[in-house]
Design goal:
about 220 residues; alpha/beta; TIM Barrel; globular; Ribul_P_3_epim-like
Length: about 220
């Protein structure tokens, strides 16, 4: 089973609310929220007010905050207040000591983002101590429409050998013509963006119904 998560930043925030309503109505269980500070990556993401609004409007959806920021600690208290379920931050900023400290500030699940250049075996102790991974499946972060690097999906097996309990969220490059690769790699949740507007059966069936028939229930 491969679950789908909608990247909110990949949508036009001024026009997407009806799209999100339709996705949730038809079974969307996960939503992916990008937070960026223009320091870690040269893009801006969502703000806390938008995240709080979405979490309150869709109480049955599980949200993850993907923090491409220079210091996630500055955000943890607020994330706890708005009751987001999962928070991830860059692997290279992590340590076992930081994770222990962060757990005193945030009651949800903590994870790390693994980028294409990260050497996984250098961070085994950290991977053993997180609840989930945001596995980047593109070579460069911070943009939209970047192509999948399929070799990065091979990391799922390595990660689950290190920590069999890991929940793995893939992020980047998901298209109709490569979604089978995410399923075969045993990703738990695949984050998508434009796929909801470009899948071939768009005129015949709603996206979540199409997705779940292929990869879900």
């Amino acid at each position: 089973m491969l679950k789908y998560s909608q990247s909110v930043c990949a949508l036009n925030l001024l026009k997407c609310e009806q799209q999100i309503d339709d996705l949730v109505k038809n079974g969307l269980e996960y939503m992916h929220l990008d937070f960026m500070d223009f320091h870690y990556t040269s893009s801006f993401g969502l703000n806390m007010e938008t995240a709080d609004y979405l979490i309150k409007k869709y109480p049955n959806v599980q949200f993850d905050a993907h923090c491409m920021t220079s210091d996630v600690e500055l955000l943890l208290k607020k994330f706890n207040e708005i009751k987001i379920q999962r928070v991830s931050f860059p692997l290279r900023q992590a340590s076992v000591e930081k994770l222990s400290s962060y757990r005193t500030m945030f009651s949800g699940q903590l994870g790390v983002m693994i980028e294409s250049q990260d050497e996984i075996m250098n961070y085994v102790d950290i991977i053993k101590n997180v609840d989930f991974i945001v596995l980047m499946t593109i070579d460069k972060i911070g943009g939209t429409g970047v192509k999948l690097n399929p070799e990065l999906l091979n990391r799922v097996k390595v990660l689950k050998q290190i920590n069999p309990k890991l929940f793995i969220i893939s992020d980047g490059g998901l298209r109709e013509n490569n979604a089978d690769l995410f399923h075969e790699a045993k990703v738990d949740v695949a984050v998508g963006g434009s796929i909801i507007n470009t899948y071939s059966a768009k005129d015949k069936v709603e996206f979540m119904t199409w997705w779940n028939e292929k990869y879900g229930l």
